[in-house]
Amino acid sequence: MIIDTHAHYDDEKFDEDREKLLLSLKEGGIERVINMGTCVKTSREAVKLAKTYDAVYAAVGVHPEEIADLSGDWLDEIRALAGAEKVVMIGEIGLDYYWVKDNKEEQKKVFREQLKLAAELDLPVSVHSRDAAEDTLAVITEEVAIAKAKGQRLTGIIHCFGYSPEMAESFIKLGFLIGIGGVVTFKNSKKLKETAEKIPLEKLVLETDAPYLAPEPFRGKRNSSLFLPYVAETIAQIRGIAREEVEKITTENAYRLIKGL
Ligand code: NI
């Protein structure tokens, strides 16, 4: 059985068949899905999906692309939502200098506040990081140290990992896991294939980012957790092991990291 550690089933692309799809996950070999929040509204929707569907768990948080619209009490709202049933992560949070780069300081501030919240609540984080490797590593390094000094723990997943294998090592040293999804199946993903080969299997988790980033041979189509065996198969081929082994170990990794799953 597979765990999808990062998906967005509240997306309107699932409006037509969400229920059918989410009820078919277990039959398709997907044991659990963690549905991300990206703002207060979608975090609320993630909690609702988790309440409704057995296989769905929730993460709550504010994505770096969403911080322009934040209300004054957003952090209190996220904190309150984090207390709901089946909320197992804070996410997705992070830094994105690809889409938005004129508010780096504000992004870092919002990221830090949510890392502190995660440490306080002892929930792992799901981190979005694009064109921001150095700053992401620097912020997480500092916040891990701050958490440790307070007797707290800060850990999580670098979702849709797109940096170098060396950068993956740096995050792993901080106690983080590396999330790999459909991109690893793309022909031009040389760097990610190298990461998927080099890092210990015990540090990998599977994810979709559905509806985005469908693996080959569905590239460009709507993604779903049901496509994850294609991702597992690609990683298995790269590492020269069986697909079942990739599925088993990455599932164990997810359960080890994410309490309450
Ligand atoms: Ni995402």
Task: Note down, in words, how this protein is organized.
By secondary structure, the chain is α/β, with parallel strands linked by helices. The chain has a single domain, classed as TIM Barrel (Alpha-Beta Barrel), CATH 3.20.20.140. It contains nine helices and eight strands. It has an eight-stranded parallel β-sheet, sandwiched between helices. Helix 4 links the parallel strand 4 and strand 5. The longest helix has 18 residues. The chain binds nickel (II) ion.
Query: How much helicity do the residues have?
Result: 40-55%
Mean pLDDT: 97
Hetero ligands? nickel (II) ion
Q: At CATH's second level, what is the architecture?
A: Alpha-Beta Barrel
Write the topology of this structure:
Layout: E1 2-7, H1 18-23, E2 30-35, H2 40-52, E3 56-60, H3 74-82, E4 87-96, H4 104-121, E5 125-130, H5 133-149, E6 156-158, H6 165-173, E7 176-180, H7 190-198, E8 204-206, H8 228-239, H9 243-257
Helix pairs in contact: 2-3, 4-5, 8-9
Nickel (II) ion (NI) is lined by residues 6, 8, 36, 92, 209.
